[in-house]
Design brief:
Length: 573
């Protein structure tokens, strides 16, 4: 058995050391891509997003934008290249693991490929969304442009981070490795605990819906942006405290300072890593994190209610005073694209000018398209005269036997109906911008939560910088007093920070303070406090305590300046 394991290990090492395997696989992937282009891969394997956009345009009897046609030809090849590149990249990383210089080229190619694929997919979806909007919401081109920028930053920054790690000097590299190990451990541990707790909470709904393992895995993979934004501040705080406490106990910080480096230079890798993590958090919190949390609640709600589609909102009541229509929808899906997803439990009541009922539409389901308007399915229509029902007509039957009432004259859009029932907590930046553009004349107290969360999307990730500024001085200990007090103080300050942040956020949502002030004020206060602590620690001074702040200075006896004054004082005595 031992000899067999030894041979297996030797074969493993020989496989890793085979020359030109990575380059050969890369050339092979390019050849497969060239053959696919020669045989017209985009005709036989169209992209789902582009195909849905073209199908929606045809159903709405609208001209397909030329940009979508061009991107529909490019996107299938990007999908093929990414599908081929994932196993190739894993093989190359396996062969070159431990050699950062040789890893730079494959990681850079993979980052550029994934960024192009993601940006192209988003462009197809946005162009279709802006020309053939699925719910009638106003597009937000500037917000979408920033979304593409964040995609490029999040994906394209990986080679830059790897290059920084490769080029750092020995001392900075050691500090960075000492910090990254507990950071990765804490993140993986907290992420696993979060998923296990959520799975236990919703396990009954998953079992009743007979959710497959693949769907369950995709469900939690889609939640990773929200999990990252939620648990990264805690993981970062604990990693900073653990790394600095360990280095302080081993007198490594004192040795680095004795080498002639300042405290800021010693902790520079930790601060730069914190900035990088904050940028990634801002990219995730811009769109994917709030959408992931909203989708989670919607999918779980749909499973509990045994619905086919994910539910954006339920029990919606909407009143349009201009058209005198009152809408009610039992459930509203996240998407109405393609006509497959529908609103369920729909009731529409129309009134005359004097307030008497004119018509009521009762439909188990309804859909909407930008070209055809509203379509109500398998229901009935009631006509009123003088407040009494004079006719109750079922919907007309189509050639396929389905009963459908087409109502293109109804001008309300799904976005206008559901937007008043949306919560700003689960809306991304583009959705918040669309909401504010769609309701410019709404009351300030109604718009205050949406304006506050719009600022909050950008401010929330930077709380990690303020936390590190506070935790770093408390984690550094020059004396034998130990760092237990600093760790306890950091954890206590963290909970105070969370409390103050939520307090100011609620003040902004209630309209009591300006939105920009409520989300940035906790960061400024605790950041300034952390900067003060850092200055104390950089000057090798003891950190101030509450006792020292409120302690009165001891009374001092004034001494006479010269002998004559002393003699006069003694004579008076």
């Amino acid at each position: 058995m031992k000899q067999w394991l030894s041979r297996l290990n030797q074969a493993w090492q020989k496989a890793r050391e085979l020359p030109y395997v990575g380059r050969s696989l890369f050339v092979l992937g390019l050849l497969v891509l060239a053959v696919a282009m020669f045989f017209g891969w985009h005709h036989t394997h169209p992209d789902d997003v582009a195909g849905a956009a073209i199908q929606q345009a045809q159903m709405a009897q609208m001209a397909v934008p030329g940009s979508i046609v061009v991107l529909a030809r490019i996107l299938p090849y990007l999908n093929l290249w990414v599908s081929i590149g994932v196993p190739l990249l894993l093989i190359v990383i396996w062969r070159r693991w431990g050699n950062l210089t040789r890893l730079m080229a494959p990681v850079s190619i993979a980052s550029v490929s994934v960024a192009l694929w993601a940006i192209t997919s988003e462009l197809v979806d946005y162009i279709a969304h802006s020309h053939m909007t699925e719910m009638g919401e106003p597009p937000a081109p500037v917000a979408f442009a920033f979304k593409l920028v964040f995609i490029a930053v999040a994906v394209g920054s990986l080679p830059l981070a790897l290059q920084y790690y490769r080029k750092t000097p020995i001392l900075e590299n050691y500090t960075l490795r000492t910090f990254l190990h507990p950071l990765i451990f804490c993140f993986v541990a907290f992420c696993s605990l979060w998923i296990i707790m959520d799975l236990l909470d919703n396990l009954k709904d998953f079992q009743q819906a007979k959710t497959s393992f693949g769907d369950l895995l995709g469900f939690y993979v889609a939640l990773l942006p929200y999990i990252y934004v939620t648990i990264m501040p805690v993981a970062l705080l604990l990693a900073v405290l653990y790394a600095l406490t360990r280095m302080s106990r081993a007198n490594e910080l004192i040795s680095m300072l004795g080498f002639g480096r300042s405290l800021a230079q010693v902790l520079r890798p930790i601060f730069l890593c914190t900035l990088y993590v904050s940028v990634l958090s801002m990219a995730a919190n811009y769109y994917w994190a709030p959408r992931a949390e909203g989708n989670r609640k919607a999918i779980v709600r749909a499973l509990s209610e045994k619905g086919k589609d994910s539910i954006m909102a339920s029990a919606i009541m909407f009143r349009n005073e201009q058209t005198r229509r009152t809408w009610y929808a039992a459930t509203f899906p996240f998407s109405l694209r393609g006509g497959h997803e529908r609103m369920h439990g729909v009731q529409v009541r129309e009134e005359n000018a004097d307030g008497s009922p004119a018509r009521t539409i009762l439909a188990p389901s309804a859909s909407w398209s930008p070209g055809g308007g509203w379509r109500f399915f398998d229901g009935q229509e009631m006509i009123y005269e003088k407040g009494s029902v004079v006719a109750m007509r079922p919907f007309p039957a189509l050639a396929d036997g389905q009963k459908v009432l087409e109502a293109p004259e109804i001008e309300e859009t799904p976005w206008g109906i559901v937007s008043y029932a949306l919560r700003a907590d689960f809306m991304s930046v583009p959705e918040l911008v669309s909401y504010l553009h769609a309701h410019p004349k709404a009351a300030d107290d109604k718009l205050a939560p949406f304006r506050t969360h719009l600022w909050h999307r950008f401010a929330l990730p930077w709380q990690m910088v303020a936390l590190v500024l506070v935790a770093a001085p408390l984690g550094v200990a020059y004396s034998r007093r130990g760092a237990v007090g600093g760790i306890a103080g950091s954890v206590f300050i963290f909970f105070i920070f969370m409390f103050v942040g939520n307090l100011f956020l609620n003040l902004g949502k209630g309209g009591h303070l300006p939105p920009w002030l409520t989300v940035w004020m906790p960061h400024v206060l605790f950041g300034a406090f952390g900067w003060m602590l850092f200055r104390y620690r950089s000057a090798n001074r003891d950190l101030p305590t509450l006792k020292s702040l409120f302690k009165k200075a001891p009374a001092s006896i004034q001494r006479p300046r010269n002998r004559s004054d002393a003699a006069a004082a003694s004579g008076m005595a």
